[in-house]
Amino acid sequence: MSFIRRIEIPIMIFVIFSLLILFNYFTGMAYEAASTVISWAPILWILSYIVGYVSMIRYHVIIIHKKQKDWIYSIIVLVCFIITFLLGQLYKPAFDFVFMHILLPLQVSMLSYVGFYTYTVFFRGARTRNIYALFLLVTAIIIMLWQAPATSAIIPSVVPISIWIRDVLQTGAIRAILIGIGLGIILIFIRTMFGYERSYVGGE
Amino acid sequence: MSAMLPKVDRLIFLLFLFFIAIPFILPVALPLPISPTTLKYKEILENLRKGDTIIWFVDAMIGAWAETAPGDIATFNFILEQCREKGVKFVMVTTFHAESLAYAETIFKNYLNTEGLTYGVDYVYLGWIPGYESALAGIAGNLPAIVKTDYYGTPISQIPMMQNLHSIDDFAISGFTSSTSPDPYIRQWSKKPIITNILAANIGWIMPYVEKRIIVAYLAGVRGAAEFEYLIGRIGSATKLISAQSTAHIYAVALLIAANIYYFGFVRRRGEVIKK
Amino acid sequence: MIPVEIIEATLILMTWSLLYKDNPLYKLAASMTIGLYLGVTLNYAIDSLNKNIYVPLIVQGKWLSPTTIVFIIGLLLYTRFIKSLWWLSRWPLAILSSIGLSVAVTGALGPQIIAQLSTPPLAGHPLSIINGILGVTATVTSMCYFVYSREHKGVLGALVKIGRIFLMIAFGFMLGTFLMSNIAFAIQNMSILAVPPGAYISAIAAIILIIVTSLPRVKKSKGEEMKK
Predict the structure, then answer these.
(1) Which residues in chain A have Cβ-Cβ distances shorter than 8 Å to B249?
(2) Which of A161, B75, B108, B268 is deepest in the core (most CB within 10 A)?
(3) Could you report the per-residue pLDDT of B84-111, keeping only the tens digit for each?
(4) C-alpha distances in angstroms, C51 versus A29, C66, C67, C181?
């Protein structure tokens, strides 16, 4: 019994499935098997997705049960959750209304904080403290003038400069990061295959 | 977080609200030059020929509605126009997240003009195939193995236009809308030309792919959407929002310059006095 | 019937009230967002579960299919809530990770690595040759910046300094484009708040804000009068 509890078992599962997909990629000889394995992903994904809901509900129920700080808001979370879920299952027009006219404005307004705080960052953080910051800020100002349709029409010279920055300088630097990410994925994959990377199964 | 924000922050927020409110209170038609990238985007869609099938991965989050939905609505209606006029086929699918399905479903049900077209013959919506990159790979490799039914639950074996669609080779072009990383689409669908409607923030990220002609055209954020709406003569929400983008950008540039004048004029000089 | 814009404007202003001060209205809006979001997305998740599992296994009666095995493996994910069996939840996670990572690795090789390593043709117009050289320099020097196995000294140090400039330009470009994305949300909200009927709610909120901000001053001046 203790053997099947060992972490080597999920690592082995990982290796077997990965080798199958890689084998098919390089030889094309296991097309059906690889396709079948890949087609399992949606079912596993959706079941893992629901685990998140169970955890979330447990978290709020514990807060309410222990009457922790702001527990009243956990009740609001659960009530809104249950009502929306029931509307979705029982009365679709009301569900659509909740989505379009309550959730959408709420979520967009929550995200709008990013915009508000970008401006405070501009005032507080975006200062030319050294030569590198100067490059960053000058580029940002040129790009902002180009992005705003009105200013790019009023100052047309920002357009070719911005396009040049985008196509030559920026693309070159981002390409380095992209290659780095690509190599990083391969490195993580190799580490996982050899069992050095175990965080995906919750470590030891 | 502190209970009350500092006064300067609140002043910055207030001015920001003022700047973005002006175009709505006093509507002024600010100039909108059309970018070559948007022209290319339209050209690519116009050049679709009879029998070509385009697949579009609608994977934006609900929160990105403001930025990507205007572009999606304009693009999908333009593709449907191509379906009507030339017999192009259109497949819509979601792979990312349940909220991407909410986003796609809202557009599909409320904003598309499907007059004169037959569902299942000219266009189809496959609903949500969970799995993100795995689903993208599955659809590219063996579509019938991973997609069993469409959005309505109809088996794809009963959908006429799906009979000839088995893998990436059966599509002329693919498109995607994403509010996160564009890399998974490139990794799985680079065998065929890709077009995209993305957040303006991601333009920099896709440029190496554009240079290598993996992404052949793109629509960048609200501005791209407004330009595209103008090009296809279908004024939508992006056009209404674009003037506020201009005023907000001008405010941002002014704030950056003011911040540096303040820093060099007051803070740094005061710092030097203290050092002395 | 209340116009939907009135409801939307009220919800937006409830959320934005944090810009002045942390308050119960904001917390209510935040809790509602989480609750509604969970409710909406769970509906779609259940629909998907229905399409992928319930219909083939129960409605169509295909019990003897791979779907049954995958479903059982997937159910093992829920053993993480049982202390003595939580280790079983690692198995489906291993399969899921293996599929995800394998397809990412095979996909990354072509467009993300090999295609990016090919240099642009250094021919044609002199300007395009210069641009080509600049692009390659940007890539090479930026990659040098991420070399951590050697100290950034000597030739490497000089390359890193150049790379850092290119990276700063790239980040400046991103900062410039981020702005359009970041403010799009607030602008969409403003399209509701600045025009009637949403503007009526904005006007009421502005009056409340003026009263709330001026109250402490009135109290303070009264207190000073009392002292005198």
Answers:
(1) 144-145, 147-148, 151
(2) B75
(3) 999 999 999 999 988 899 899 999 998 9
(4) 31, 15, 12, 35
Instruction: State which residue of chain B sits closest to C115, comparing Cα positions.
Output: B212
B78 within some domain? yes
B223 domain residue, yes or no: yes
Q: Are residues B132 and B257 in the same domain?
A: no
The residue of chain A nearest to residue C138, with distances taken between CA atoms, is A172
Structural domain of C133: 125-182
Are residues B109 and B152 located together in one domain of the fold? Answer: yes
What DSSP line would sit under B101-160, residue for residue?
A: HHHHHHHHHHT---TT--BTTTEEEEEE---THHHHHHHHH-HHHH--B-TTS-BGGG-G
Q: What is the CATH number of the domain that holds B93?
A: 3.40.50
Taking an 8 Å cut-off on Cβ atoms, the answer to whether A106 and C138 are in contact is no
Instruction: Report pLDDT digits (tens) over A156-167.
Output: 888 899 999 998
Kindly tell me if the per-residue pLDDT of A13 is higher than 90: yes
| CB-based contact B260:A127 (threshold 8 Å) | yes
Residues B134/C103, Cβ–Cβ less than 8 Å: yes
- The count of domains in chain C is 1
Per the structure, the count of domains in chain B is 2
C137-159 pLDDT, tens per residue? 999 999 999 888 888 888 889 99
Please, which pLDDT band fits residue B2 given cuts at 50, 70 and 90? very low
Same-domain check for residues B110 and B145: yes
Tokens of A12: 């082995």
**C72: in domain:** no
What is the extent of the structural domain holding B252?
A: 7-23+241-275
Concatenate the DSSP letters of all residues of C128-156 into one string: HHHHHHHHHHHHHHHHHHT--SS-S-HHH
**CB under 8 Å to A101, separation ≥6 — which residues?**
C4, C7, C8
Residue B155 located in a structural domain = yes
Residues B153 and B196 placed together within one structural domain of the fold = yes
- Is position C60 within any domain? no
What does the DSSP 8-state code read for residue B275? H
Name the region of B97 (left: φ>0; alpha: ψ -120 to 50; beta: rest). Answer: beta
* ipTM entry: 0.86
Nearest to B24 among C19, C111, C190 (CB): C190
From CA B249, how far away is CA B258, in angstroms rounded? 14
**CB proximity under 8 Å: C 95-124 to A:** 95-106, 108-109, 112-113, 116-117
Closest residue in chain A to residue B99, using alpha carbons only: A99
Examine residue C49 and state whether it is found in any structural domain, yes or no: no
Q: Are B255 and B127 in the same domain?
A: no
Do both B156 and B214 map to the same domain? yes
| C196 min Cα distance to partner chain B (Å) | 10
Residue of A126, C210, C191, C3 whose CA lies nearest to B17: C191
Q: Tokens 């095979």 belong to which residue?
A: C106
In a shared domain, residues B11 and B119: no
* Angle separating helix axes A113-124 and B237-262, nearest 10 degrees: 20
C159 is a domain residue: yes
Domain assignment present for B50: yes
Give per-residue pLDDT as tens, C14-59.
999 888 888 899 999 999 999 999 999 999 999 888 888 888 888 8
Note whether B31 contacts A149, CB cutoff 8 Å: yes
Residue type, C132: G
